[in-house]
Design goal:
8% strand, Four Helix Bundle (Hemerythrin (Met), subunit A), Helix Hairpins, 4-stranded antiparallel sheet, 3 domains, alpha+beta, Jelly Rolls
C-alpha cells in the first residue's frame, strides 16, 4: 500500500534539499578535477597548478632572501605577510584535497572519514601537511626561527606533484635500484682497496695523514670522485702512481651510476608524455575495485601518450601489442562503412588484438585532444597475475565488442545482398 503523498510545502523543501545536495556534490567534483586531475578535466585546473607552482618558487626565493641580514631587517614585515599568505593558500589547498577525496571511485565506497584518512596518509599528502605544519606548530611551542625557516624547505617538495621530471626520476631510481646498488657496491670495493693501498704506501712518509685506513679513505674518496681537494696528497713514487690509477678508475666509477640513471630517464621520458597521478588512474572504471597500493602499482605499469585531433591512435593492420585506455578526450572507431563508435573517458580499446595476439582490424582516431594510458602485453600479464578479475572483465568486453562487430558486418552483408537483388530485379524488369 502506497503512503500518502507529501504536502506541497514539504515536497518543495525536499526537492530544494536534493538540489542543494546535488550542487554540493558537483562543486566537490569540480574541486577534485581542478586539484587532482588538472587542466584536461577542468578549465581552471591549469591556472591553479601554475599559481601553486609559482607560489612554491616564490617561497624558495623568500627563504633565501631572509638569510641576508640587510634584507631580513628591512623587509621583515613583507616576508611575514607573504609567509602567512602562503600558509593560508597551502592550507586551503590541503583541506580542499581532503574534502574532495571521497569523489575518487575507489574511496567513494568507504565512509567519508575513513576515505579522507586513507587519502591523507598518502606520501604526497603528508608532504603537503608538513609544508604548513611547522607554521601552526610554532604558535603552540616556541621554536627557533632558524629551525622554522629550514622546515619551510618542505614546501619545495610539493613540486613533485607538478613536475613530470621529478616523478620520472623517482620511477627511474625505483626501477633501477638493483643496478644502482650494484654500482654502489663496486664503488665501496674500489674505495676500500684504494684506502688500504694508500695506507700501506704512505703511512711511513705521512703518518699524520695516512696513519690508518679510515684516515686514508678521505684521500681515496676525493681522488676516486675526481674532486681532488689537495689537502692530502701522496708524496712517495708508488703513492703517486696509485693516485693516477685511482683517478682513471674514478672516471669509470662515476660514469657507471650516471649512465644507469641517464638511460632509465630517457626510457621513462619516452614512455610518459604527461604525468600519470594516483588520482587519475583511480578514476578509470577498469581499476575501480583496487585499493591504494594496487593503484600505485598500476600507475607504474602504464605508459602515457598525447594525441591531437585527427591523429590515428591505432591503425588497422598494426601489431596488437598493447591496449589503450582513454584518460581524457574522445576517439572514434570505424567498425563498418556506416557504423562508428565514439569512445570517451574511461573507455578502452585494442584489447581484442592484444588478447588474440593478432593485428588490429579497425582504425581508432582521436576526435579531440586525447590523453591515453597504454598497457602493453608484459604489463597486462603482470596485472592479470595479481588481479585475474581485471582480465576477466577485459575478456567480457572483448567478447561483447566482437559480437557487436560481427552483427554490424552481418548487417552490412545483408544490405549489400538486398541491394544486389534489387538491382537484378530491375535489370530483369527492364529486359
Amino acid at each position: 500500500m502506497r503512503g500518502a503523498p507529501l504536502p506541497a510545502p514539504r515536497r518543495a523543501e525536499a526537492l530544494k534539499a536534493m538540489a542543494a545536495q546535488s550542487a554540493w556534490r558537483r562543486w566537490r567534483r569540480d574541486v577534485h578535477d581542478i586539484l587532482e586531475v588538472g587542466g584536461d578535466a577542468h578549465p581552471a585546473g591549469r591556472f591553479v597548478n601554475v599559481f601553486i607552482v609559482v607560489l612554491i618558487f616564490l617561497n624558495a626565493f623568500a627563504f633565501a632572501a631572509e638569510t641576508v641580514d640587510g634584507l631580513a631587517v628591512r623587509y621583515d614585515p613583507y616576508f611575514r605577510a607573504f609567509n602567512i599568505f602562503s600558509v593560508a593558500v597551502f592550507s586551503i589547498e590541503y583541506l580542499l584535497r581532503l574534502w574532495s577525496a571521497v569523489d575518487i571511485p575507489m574511496l567513494s565506497r568507504m565512509k567519508p572519514w575513513k576515505a579522507r584518512l586513507r587519502f591523507a596518509l598518502r606520501p604526497i599528502m603528508l608532504i603537503d601537511l608538513f609544508a604548513v605544519l611547522p607554521f601552526y606548530f610554532s604558535w603552540l611551542v616556541p621554536v627557533d626561527l632558524r629551525v622554522l625557516r629550514v622546515l619551510r624547505l618542505f614546501r619545495l617538495l610539493k613540486l613533485v606533484r607538478y613536475s613530470p621530471a621529478l616523478q620520472t626520476l623517482g620511477r627511474v631510481v625505483e626501477n633501477e635500484y638493483r643496478a644502482l646498488l650494484g654500482a654502489l657496491l663496486i664503488i665501496l670495493v674500489l674505495l676500500l682497496f684504494a684506502s688500504t693501498a694508500a695506507y700501506f704506501l704512505e703511512r711511513e712518509a705521512q703518518p699524520d695523514k695516512f696513519g690508518s685506513v679510515p684516515a686514508a679513505a678521505w684521500w681515496a674518496l676525493a681522488t676516486l670522485t675526481t674532486v681532488g681537494y689537495g689537502d692530502i696528497v701522496p708524496v712517495t713514487p708508488l703513492g703517486k702512481m696509485l693516485g693516477g690509477v685511482d683517478m682513471l678508475l674514478g672516471v669509470g666509477m662515476i660514469a657507471l651510476p650516471v649512465a644507469i640513471i641517464a638511460t632509465g630517464f630517457n626510457q621513462e621520458s619516452s614512455r610518459h608524455q604527461f604525468v600519470i597521478t594516483w588520482s587519475m588512474v583511480a578514476r578509470v572504471p577498469l581499476f575501480a575495485t583496487m585499493d591504494e597500493s594496487e593503484i600505485a602499482e598500476i600507475t607504474k605499469l602504464l605508459y602515457a601518450r598525447n594525441y591531437l585531433p585527427g591523429v590515428p591512435i591505432v591503425r588497422a593492420g598494426g601489431v596488437g601489442d598493447a591496449m589503450y585506455l582513454i584518460a581524457s578526450g574522445e576517439a572514434e572507431v570505424e567498425i563498418g562503412r556506416d557504423k562508428r563508435v565514439v569512445l570517451k573517458d574511461g573507455d578502452f580499446f585494442g584489447e581484442m588484438a592484444l588478447l588474440e595476439r593478432r593485428r588490429h582490424k579497425h582504425d581508432v582516431v582521436a576526435m579531440t585532444k586525447c590523453r591515453i594510458y597504454v598497457l602493453d602485453a608484459e604489463a597486462l600479464s603482470r596485472l592479470a597475475r595479481s588481479h585475474p578479475e581485471i582480465l576477466r572483465h577485459i575478456r567480457e568486453v572483448a567478447r561483447t565488442r566482437a559480437a557487436s562487430g560481427d552483427a554490424a558486418q552481418g548487417e552490412v552483408r545483408k544490405r549489400k545482398t538486398r541491394a544486389a537483388s534489387s538491382s537484378l530485379r530491375k535489370q530483369d524488369a527492364e529486359t
